[in-house]
Design goal:
There is one protein chain. By secondary structure, the protein is mainly alpha-helical. Helix content is 78%, strand content 0%. 40% of the residues are buried.
Amino acid sequence: MSGNLAGALLMLLGMAAFALNDTIGKWLVADYGVAQVILLRSLAACLLMAPFFLRGKGIVARVKSAPRPGLQALRAICATAEVFCFYLAVFYMPLVDVMAFWMAAPIYVVAVSPLLLGERVSAKTWTAVAVGFAGVLILLAPSLQVSGLGVLFALLGTAAFAAMVILGRSLRETPDRDLVLFQLAAALVAGVLLAPFDWQPVRSAGDLGLLFLLGLVATGAHMLVTRSLKLADASVVAPLQYSLLVWGALLGFIVFGDVPATGMIAGAALIVGSGLIVLRRTQREDEAARSKAPAPDLAEPQDTAA
């Protein structure tokens, strides 16, 4: 099996796992507090990731040696705010509607990157961004009829997600394992602080299993996507991320009986279309930048650490 084919299959599995994770989360927040769900989800994820976190230098040393600690903390806070907002949004709104809002996050990143990252954006990319924003506006109309609070949390969550992506670009020198550690630690701390205010007794062993399964599925989804991006070209697998909407619509209908509204479908189509254009333009710009970069000096030893 070729790397691109294996990577594509892993990306599709990763998106299915994310959709399953989101479905379980929506099911649980109907009966349990969001902070309680996030606390137990984070505990399960930490247990699963413990062997990776404990490998190499200690956790405390890793935290102390992390570059740009202020940005690290801000990124972890944004990541925690994003997951809180997502679960609050799905409490009020259909699952696929919330997913469609999240699909617009890359458009937000492109829109603010000239200001925050100093990146140049072409006129064609700006046109795609405008189309994406039009999709968000179309999506807002039916969503506001369902829940104003849900829309508020969805917009705040996508803004937090976009901020997390931008901060991640500024922290490229930080190992992925450390970024995950800081992100999980922040969510765990937030859960510990906030869960006591809305703690509900776990009703059954099945619910307890779902609470911990949430963390396992989310971690597995992240691993699948990460492996996919290492095996295949980004141009092959990145567009497959939009399959999340298909899974969201399917699971939302099967589990919750949600039927996507016409306005939601139209808005999501514009968001996906603009996202694909932005993605393609970005990949072309990256390829052009790499082609202009000087070749490495073969006389010098190259860093091949994985």
